[in-house]
Amino acid sequence: MICFALFSWYPMVREIVLSFQQNNFVDPGKWVGFENFRTVFADPAFWAAWLNTAAFSGLALVIGYAVPFVLAVVLNELKHAKAYLRFVVYLPVMLPPAVAVLLFKWFYDPGSGLFNQALGVVHIPPLSWLDSTSTALISLVIVSTWMNLGTGTLIYLAALQSIPGDLYESAELDGAGLLKRVRHVTIPQTKLILLVMLLLQIVATMQVFIEPYLLTGGGPENATVTVAYLMYQYAFNFGDFGGGSALGLMLMVVLLVFSTIYLRVSREEAER
Amino acid sequence: MTTTRRGLSLLLVMGLGLVAASCGTADKKQAGDSAGGQVTITVGCEPPKSNPKEREAWEADVATFQKAHPNITVQGKDAFPCINPDTFQAKLAGGTQEDLFYVYYTDVRKIIEKKQAADISQYVGTVGAVKDLRPDVMGVFKANDNTDKTYGLPRNNYNMGLVYNRKLFTQAGLDPANPPKTWDDVRAAAKKIAALGPGYVGFGEYSAGNTGGWHFAAELYARGGSMVSNDGKTAAFNSDAGKAVLENLKRMRWDDNSMGSKQLLQWADLMRMMGGGKLGMMIGAPDVVQSVNNDFKGKFDDYGVTAVPESGGQSSLSGGDGYMFNPKASPEKIKAGLQWLEFHELTPGKGQFDYARAKAQGRPVGLPIPDLYGESAPGQQINALRKQYATVPVDNFTPYVEAQGKITNKLEPPKAQELYAVLDVAMSAVLTRKDADVGKLLADAESKANKILAKNT
């Protein structure tokens, strides 16, 4: 509990304090009320950061939410090579995030990158990937999805395997094919875990930082600047911890809403 | 339930207690402070063990210094790179900042404004070399409030130029002894280098992580422009010079196709491309060649540096690094620290200027930097030693050196990082979008910059 208080509560409380202070870490902090919030509100990148964060989360839900579930269903249905394929799916999780992100930097290279070379094989002209305002954000979502695919798939797989086999057998006896079994057995039986994962994914993706930090530096034209990245800019590049903490507090409040819903849902699941 | 609540209350009290403790004003006496005339100083940027020759030289210098000053103990703190912006504030907050901490010019103004460095004005007079230092270099470490207070001393100084790959120039049929003097020359040379084949980039430019805005400032100064008005309160880059910077890049990127297709480059990207031998030119100072040689597999002989095109009679963005003092350092530590800096960073023939030793160790000698003294006596002495012990092809830097007399060093603008972040947008736009409207980009950036400059933080 002491460790929890020191490493989890203390930074959180400290962040709240800092967001209302001007602090140079030498003199005692000076209370400035909502000045830090006004500063970040007036920042030209503020709304871009929130819109990009929301868009990133939205795109991550469209792409990153469905893919692990589908993969889990497929893996669950397989009769052979299950263990091997589970390992293959989980492999990206084992790579340090920085390595995975830099690997994609090479994949996205507009000249010699793997993706454009693959497109060339089917006579599709090369894409700008990270260098275009229309594709940069979605390119980051693809990296993020790839990195987190394994964890999501394994959680779904565990949930699928807890579904009583006789339900599937009854469905099969009634003549249900794969899609019908998924619709009438799998989805209703995993409803709560699907909801929990949805909320967890929203909380995780809204904190996206490493992808814009390493791949795009927030560009082009602020197209990939996110709230967490802007927070980093304030704290470490502008030396304004007050502004960074104010942004952090705003993000925390938003995430708190989703976390509260998550807690309620997971409590329901536990009581089920 | 009651137990849970009591437990939570206890945790909350502990959390608040920790916060209160962190907000305390008690100024703890630092370990290693003077006792019986003895003083210990911690100094940042000791060369890391992975750089054995420089480390050996540092340790020899510490031994020599301590022999001459038996009451002072120098404790080096090694790190690579010497400063990491991520840890600077944390070290200050945690009380682990060195007594003499290492800084880039870019951060000096911010540190002074935030009162995160000690005022050394009353002690700095003991350093004899200070009177010979270039006034513009000393200006970097002074407050911008007409009080003439001093907060640090320099270790390195240069201004921006044009770094080019001599080997690629030769391959492309260009004369490496006659580098570009105008931006038209740069365009023509870049086209020839890009024509060498896939992967070759004629001219590389940054546009992300605030580095785009930084290079915009460098190119703007060299065209005679300014980032901010004289009083520093409004943006001044939305000018003919500012437009010329962006228009020129846009033409090279889209009309000439000589800047490669990969953009959003940051600091290490261009270094890597230079070291890999595929990049023809970039804006940078002689320290770029040093970095490319030491850390990115390039060879000294392959690179040359000249002035930024058309910068004669104009200004060039100055850069460099130095040391500032922990705001909690005692007067004894500050005095001892100044003695160390005078010995190690500012004395011709000693410390960083011990070129005889550097040559004996097989380290590069001959770069025209640091330029701390200009034409004053110590400057001439350092240049003579540099020439005497040169191990790198000094002729490769001749165009840069010759241009220095016609170029004024100019400091970075106030709120530099914030302005650079704003200008990253304009730089990334012209390099990634063919239809980018330069006038609108600069007008938008100007309006955003004015808000930042008006902000009183």
TrEMBL record, chain A:
Keywords: Cell membrane, Membrane, Sugar transport, Transmembrane, Transmembrane helix, Transport. The keyword Zinc does not apply. SUPFAM superfamilies: MetI-like. The chain crosses the membrane at residues 54-75, 87-108, 136-159, 192-210, 241-263. Its main location: membrane. It is a multi-pass membrane protein. Residues 50-262 form the ABC transmembrane type-1 domain. It is found in: Cell membrane. PANTHER family: ABC TRANSPORTER PERMEASE PROTEIN, DIACETYLCHITOBIOSE UPTAKE SYSTEM PERMEASE PROTEIN NGCF. Belongs to the binding-protein-dependent transport system permease family. This is Multiple sugar transport system permease protein. The lineage of its organism: Bacteria, Bacillati, Actinomycetota, Actinomycetes, Propionibacteriales.
TrEMBL record, chain B:
Keywords: Signal, Sugar transport, Transport. Coiled coil: none annotated. Residues 1-25 form the signal peptide. It comes from the Bacteria. Pfam families: SBP_bac_1. The keyword Metal-binding does not apply. SUPFAM superfamilies: Periplasmic binding protein-like II. This is Multiple sugar transport system substrate-binding protein. It comes from Kribbella aluminosa.
